[in-house]
Structure prediction request, 382 residues.
Amino acid sequence: MSIAKTTSEPLTSRQRILTAMRRQMPDHVPVVPDISNMVPCRLLGKPFWDIYLHEDPPLDEAYLNAVKYFGMDGWYIYDNLTMREVPKWNERVIESSADEKKVERWIDTPFGRLKEIVCYPRQDPPWHLSAMIKNIAQDFPMLRWYMEQQPLDDVCKNRSKVGELGIYGLGFETFMGFWVWVRDGGSMQALRDFYEQPDIMRQVHEFYFDYVDRTLRCVLPERPDEILLNGSASSLSLSSPKIYREYDLPIIKRVSALCKEAGVICHQHTCGRSRLLVEINYNETDVNVMEPLERPPGGDVDLAEVKRRFGNKFCFKGNVNTFETMLNGTVEDVIREAKACIDAAAAGGGFILSTGDQCGRDTPDENLFALVEAAKTYGRYK
Prediction:
């Protein structure tokens, strides 16, 4: 992608982000703090289960309301083609209190009933008490059948919700993201599977690779603004370079190559320790955007260093600290770190000011307003 001169004309949020993702210079540095879950729910003042369980309102609409409230650039990431629940799951509340609801969820398949139990707290996002895959040989055929039923017509129907408020993307999980999501026992059990059941894990990987390849080829003609690879579980804070290379990288290479061929941006989110993954992706993939480039202590990325070494290929998005600065810092702390990030990575374009990961539920509104203002003023290109 070529570098263009900066534009002095005001841009819409969508235009601003796409300009930066193409390593060009928009009117000012885009500002996209990661508030995809907790902050929008907190702003509504409702039990979180109203949003996550009852969709009153749906999470994506809560997020778009928050985008307008803070005056930030939007990033719509709610159409995840790995986690897409079509056909719809059955649900029943099996336990309820003032603080949480426990919900059994299931789908019937020709191979048996696939089920999970999810806890919906009043003031936090949901989490699995029991995930889908408990016995791989027994349960995985059910999940495979279910994922193969998913229709791919009208996958971009939510694009109109976003409009010019931000960019609209379709998402896939990296392989580790997929496996940690479905595997009972979470990341620790998922890691054990690679060593204890390597043969069956190769079969699971082959299925998921083919699923992503087939699905992506079907949806790319719809021209989403980007394809997002959700790779939180691929972080080297949880995984290892060996697992990343063997299980994640083949899918990332295929997705990014198909995106390049179609002229669609490929964007990877991997939080925590990701410095080595930035370098691997730089050398071996066609990924366009890397984020959130978390700095120590949660991560290991020096924003100025990766910009200097890899900025000729990547747009970088990050990396204001979410707990030291956004959650517990002052407005002055936020402005100071935002300016430092802009100084480190904005020169020449190809930078989006964001946070080093998901902002906590109780992140002060004034800190988010301060981050947005810093991008609009200090982040303005001359």
